[in-house]
Design brief:
Blueprint (H helix, E strand, L loop, with lengths): L5 E4 L8 H17 L3 H11 L1 E2 L4 E2 L10 H12 L5 H17 L7 H10 L3 E5 L4 H10 L8 E3 L12 H10 L6 E5 L2 H10 L2 E5 L9 H5 L4 E3 L5 H8 L1
Helix pairs in contact: 1-2, 1-4, 2-3, 3-4, 4-6
């Protein structure tokens, strides 16, 4: 078996299609919060750096961080509501509901996870989304039976690019972080891997697509097209 013992997946952009899932989900949440009222909805769209006609985020969108505590204050200002824990919890609940409604996987995550587990790897998910949302989506995608670990920004391990989630996954598997591969689509994933001493594997399925190949190659140990290519990479690593 490979020297690696565990594969820790990022979620959005790696297992879940960002634009097809979170684009329409974000628009639905904006409508629900604004009541569909034009001015308030327009302010939410502007604060979110969101292209309504295409239901997608611009690369500068604060929503791409995945955490309501990050973009929530901007939304609170747009809606003229207090920015606090209650409002942030409401946002995360609405995103959890709408994210499930529009959930679109990248390829066949459950098939890949099952193959990895059969090959002897522990499989986990580390996301800056909320843990409840990550677990709900893992169940909907058929990943739950194959995941030994699921962590979100609110799980107590900190947020990526910090190493906490990687360290916690390694501890869960009772191995050192150097035996973990972090698979993701953004700099935060690879910085988290580096900080923990884990391997970093980049996929090109995030919002930036293949245009990010050069920048990802400078941060990751390996670059592959998608998670479908991961078993072959692991086999080559030996």
């Amino acid at each position: 078996m490979s020297r690696l013992a565990g594969i820790l997946f990022d979620k959005d952009g790696t297992l879940v299609d960002v634009d097809r899932t979170w684009g329409p989900a974000a628009h639905a949440v904006m409508i629900r919060l604004s009541g569909g009222e034009g001015a308030a909805l327009d302010r939410l769209v502007a604060a979110s750096h969101f292209v309504v006609d295409e239901r997608r985020f611009l690369p500068t969108s604060p929503l791409l961080t995945g955490a309501a505590a990050v973009f929530g204050p901007l939304w609170a200002a747009a809606l003229e509501r207090p920015a606090g824990a209650d409002f942030f919890a409401e946002i995360e609940r609405l995103f959890r509901e709408e994210g499930l409604r529009f959930l679109t996987p990248i390829g066949e995550p459950a098939v890949i996870a099952r193959r990895l587990v059969a090959a002897g790897f522990g499989v986990g998910i580390a996301t800056n989304d909320a843990e409840a949302s990550a677990r709900a989506q893992a169940r909907a995608l058929g990943l739950a039976p194959h995941c030994a670990f699921v962590a979100g920004h609110d799980s107590g391990y900190g947020r990526k690019p910090g190493p906490g989630m990687v360290d916690a996954f390694a501890a869960h598997l009772s191995v050192r972080p150097g035996r973990i591969a972090v698979v993701g689509d953004s700099a935060d994933d690879f910085l988290a891997a580096r900080a923990a001493g884990a391997m970093a594997v980049a996929v090109l399925t995030g919002p930036a697509g293949d245009t990010a190949r050069g920048s990802l190659a400078s941060l990751a140990d390996h670059v592959i097209g998608s998670i479908a290519d991961l078993p072959d990479l692991l086999a080559a690593l030996g």
